[in-house]
Design a protein that fits this description.
With 532 residues, this protein is an alpha+beta fold. The chain has 2 domains: 3-318, Spore Coat Polysaccharide Biosynthesis Protein SpsA, Chain A; 401-528, Trefoil (Trefoil (Acidic Fibroblast Growth Factor, subunit A)). The chain has helices at residues 8-25, 42-55, 59-63, 102-114, 138-147, 163-174, 194-203, 247-250, 273-278, 292-302, 333-345, 350-356, 369-378, 383-389, and strands at residues 91-97, 121-128, 153-157, 179-183, 187-189, 207-216, 223-224, 231-234, 240-243, 259-260, 269-272, 306-318, 401-409, 414-417, 427-428, 430-433, 443-447, 452-454, 457-462, 468-473, 483-486, 491-494, 500-502, 513-515, 525-528. A 7-stranded antiparallel sheet has the order 15-20-19-18-17-13-25, with no helix packed on it. β8 (231-234) and β9 form a beta hairpin. The longest helix has 18 residues, at 8-25.
């Protein structure tokens, strides 16, 4: 049922509530209003810090903020000039939660209802994935029924813990709007966030869209714009990454245009409800959480759809440093789910995933036959097509390179090593004991353009004297990123300075240096290819 088909008195009630909030939003005062930070002092500060260990955000600060707080309109001024069609699809907003704290959960719901035109917001579905916090039982149901007696919020409770992925499938089954919108349970919708989503899906029903995700500080609850915008990528270990919009996208688009993205973060997305089922929903063989965002990203592109970010739709999200909930059985759900993605969608490129997760090669990730059949049924394209046409900037470490593998010191048991700096944007390069086949920290490529590279990071030098060997973002393209490997001599020579990579007097775990070439054994390196 579309919202305009609702009984007249129900739609009137919803419009009256929406208009009333709009009229008073800019006049609101109090802690955290307009998205401002809440700073605690004294005992409150200590309590907030203590509870952050459990909740992974500052629940004390959150409880001082109204559930209906205002946030700044952080959209670019060009977005505010867009006039959207009047006849847009209806939306079912699906919020999955498991033991979510009271205030962020309800602030999510209030923000969606308060900032979504009632003629388009068909329903908000709260799907409880078997929470055991007492306040999320009868207290929450009573609050919902009292606050929204028109039934716009529908509550569904799982009878056992199913995990985010399967819970989203159940949420989609309960939805009846034209478009389904998945939101995390600790978000705040921004001004006019919904209209761009619905308008773009109306233009192309095979498009999966994501709002720009603004940051809500986990300590102060400050709502802040991310400024510009990025698109999604991925690492070969199958983790989502943010990356700059490529130049090929920038040259032909206006600021307000949708941005094509190879992948999405996964917490906030929208798509035509029927298309969701046509393209295979989510992989119900996945457990709890992890990998589902890359799976639906690859599948969308390879099977005839598009994935795009919308600069004029903004939703804030509390970025937590840890998960406040448990993973049943302590399983590595992200790793096992990612293995399913690799086996079904990545063709021969799955070798690169297993190179980073060799521990999963013989693990049981469940039956994938239904997903393999789905790919055949949908006549999906190859993963090479995806790399060539959707993500041509993705670096493939063993294709078109001079060498790849472990960079081993001659006459030593030491190898170049990231020293576990992999998740950082920059880090100093070091050496560690030779660990053939057991550590991806020691894998590097020497590209045809003379870069010593891992994923998006290339070797450069830093420090006052340029002596520190440092991995930094390749797109900076500094002169110090060019290296020549003299195979006969074994030296890695920085073309800019003419100096050599040196491990003199270093122990395992130390940082390598860039020093004048001297022909000594401490400057000799060899690439040892590895089986992928």
């Amino acid at each position: 049922m579309r919202s305009e088909e609702l009984p007249t008195h129900v739609l009137f009630m919803r419009k009256k509530r929406f208009d009333a909030y709009q009229a008073r939003e800019l006049l609101r005062t109090g802690p955290g209003e307009k998205g401002l930070p809440v700073h605690l002092e004294g005992e409150e500060k200590l309590l907030g810090e203590k509870l952050m260990q459990k909740e992974a955000f500052n629940i004390v600060a959150s409880e001082k903020i109204s559930l209906e707080r205002s946030v700044k309109d952080v959209r670019d001024h060009r977005c505010k000039d867009i006039i959207y069609p009047k006849n847009l699809p209806s939306a079912s907003v699906i919020i999955i939660y498991h033991n979510e704290a009271w205030t962020p959960l309800l602030r999510t719901v209030h923000s969606v209802i308060n900032r979504s035109p009632p003629e388009y917001l068909h329903e908000v579905i709260l799907l409880d994935d078997f929470s055991d916090r007492p306040e999320l039982g009868d207290k929450l149901r009573t609050y919902v029924e009292k606050t929204w007696p028109d039934g716009i919020v529908k509550m569904v409770r799982a009878q056992q813990r199913s995990g985010l992925i399967r819970a989203r499938i159940e949420g989609a089954k309960a939805a009846t709007g034209d478009v389904i919108v998945f939101l995390d349970s600790h978000c705040e919708a921004g001004t006019q966030w919904l209209e761009p989503i619905l308008a773009h899906i109306q233009e192309n029903r095979k498009t999966v869209v994501c709002p720009i995700i603004d940051a809500i500080n986990d300590n102060t609850l400050e709502y802040s714009s991310v400024g510009g915008y990025n698109v999604g990528g991925f690492s070969w270990s199958m983790h989502f990454t943010w990356r700059d919009v490529p130049e090929r996208e920038k040259v032909h688009r206006k600021y307000t245009d949708p941005i094509s993205s190879p992948t999405m973060a996964g917490g906030l997305l929208a798509l035509d409800r029927k298309f969701f089922w046509e393209i295979g929903a989510y992989d119900d063989g996945m457990d709890v959480w992890g990998g589902e965002n890359l799976e639906i990203s690859f599948r969308t592109w390879m099977c005839g759809g598009r994935l795009e970010f919308l600069p004029c739709s903004r939703v804030g999200h509390i970025f937590r440093s840890s998960h406040p909930y448990t993973f049943p059985g302590g399983k590595d759900t992200h790793g096992l789910n990612s293995a399913r993605v690799a086996e079904v969608w990545m063709d021969d490129y799955k070798r690169l995933f297993y190179m980073h997760r060799h521990d999963l090669k013989n693990k049981d990730f469940g039956d994938i036959s239904a997903r393999v059949d789905l790919r055949k049924k949908l006549q999906c394209k190859s993963f090479k097509w995806y790399l060539d046409n959707v993500y041509p900037e993705k670096f493939v470490l063993d294709e078109g390179v001079q060498a790849y593998g472990i960079v081993k010191a001659v006459d030593s048991s030491l190898c170049l090593d990231t020293l576990s700096g992999n998740d950082k944007m920059e880090y100093d390069l070091g050496v560690y004991y030779y660990q053939r086949g057991t550590s991806t920290n020691q894998l590097f490529s020497l590209t045809q353009t003379h870069e010593l590279r891992r994923e998006n990071l290339c070797l450069d030098s830093s420090g006052d004297d340029g002596s520190v060997a440092r991995m930094t973002l390749c797109f900076k393209k500094t002169p110090g990123m060019k290296w020549k490997h003299d195979v006969d001599q074994g030296t890695l020579i920085q073309e800019k300075s003419g100096k050599c990579l040196d491990r003199a007097d270093l122990s395992s775990g130390d940082i390598v240096k860039v020093k004048p070439c001297n022909g000594g054994s401490s400057q000799k390196w060899m690439f040892e290819s590895v089986s992928l």
